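User: Before I run my own analysis I want an independent prediction to cross-check against. Here's the chain; please return only the structure tokens and, at the end, one sentence I can use as a sanity check.
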Amino acid sequence: MTDREHELYESLRDYVFLTNRAKEIRSRLANRTYKVTASFSPTGGISSNGFSSKVESAAIREIQLLDELSAIEQAERILLTALEEAPLTDTEKGLAHCMMAGQTLSSYARTRGLYISHVYKIRDKMLKKMANCTRNDAK
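Assistant: Structure tokens:
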């Protein structure tokens, strides 16, 4: 399996997790606030690493969340484009949608009455077609 095929496989397998994580990040960003209030504590604003700003820490965390959301959205966009544009058979499309729903390859084989080795071959052909489609888009 090539690196591109492996990336697509990971995106298919983790699709439910990634979409849920994207929703969580969007929710956190929408509800993100920072209150600037006077604070009186014996520790002040100095830590072992030097001065620390709560506002700066909040801004850095927001930038990290935005970067993570951008990476998730890009992976999702590549996956969905490959699914739409690759010349997949109905069986390959069915396997892709089952994987995106969180179903394992062995459970897919069991429900369809197929040998697991046949499902692996279907998966490999599907990933090869999708990787070729994304390679053509990159050029």
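Sanity check: The beta strands are 46-47, 50-51.
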